Sequence to fold (269 residues):
Amino acid sequence: MPHAPLKLGHKRTKVGVTGAGAGAGAGEQAGWRGPRVWPSTAVAVLLLAGIGAYFGIRSARQESYQGSLRPVGIPASISTSLANYMGLSTTPGKAAPAFTLTDQHGHVMSLSPFLGKTVVLEFMDPHCTDICPIISSEFVDAYRDLGAQAKNVVFLAVNVNPFHTKVTDIAAFSGEHGLTSIPSWHFLTGSVPTLKQAWASYDVLVQAPNPNADVVHTSTVYFISPNGTEEFEAQPTDDHTANGGSYLPAGQISEFGTGIALVARHLQS
Fold:
């Protein structure tokens, strides 16, 4: 299913109401900034609002994808149809919130060492079988499309599954979905309180009631410029078969990957 500010999902998945990828929601887009833990009632309200928003956003997006309106501030290298398909929007002047987490190699990392490079950031579930594997393929395609410029682009993801926070969890997902083919790939995890701080600072709503429940979370691709500011956001999407399986045609995955590469190139220029 596409996106909107949230993504619901299959087995720990997300189906799209994002203000991009696995559903995190209304609050995210509205802009909670700073660490915060959401009461369960508020989460439920936000999730319902996000689900409703999803259908409206998807419909509007499909209409714009067919055609006409160009989002403001989009680089000239990106066609109107591609910008609309990606749900691409500008977020100029917002300093990317800092965090310190551990990647799939056990290395402690923060954003500051990546100043001077473009950072492509997502929030993913290492047990997702829905949109996260699709976004992973789009990241791999984007890395390949970048060619020689790939050395100037870093691909990051932050774990949204509070029940699977081990380095082995994120390492297994990275290998399974080909992300280890990206030299600059880092899947980041940490303690649940530290992860919650990162989720809140990027307006990512997460609902994971128990280890066997689907994780519902926001899925947005954040583009952080070499000077450390958020410049663009994109909203990944997927679709579902009659039996609930998640998929996207290979051409659409490739197209979204091309769009990621084009935005990254623009930020490096």
The radius of gyration is 17 Å. The helical segments are 26-30, 40-65, 80-86, 131-146, 167-176, 192-201, 250-268.
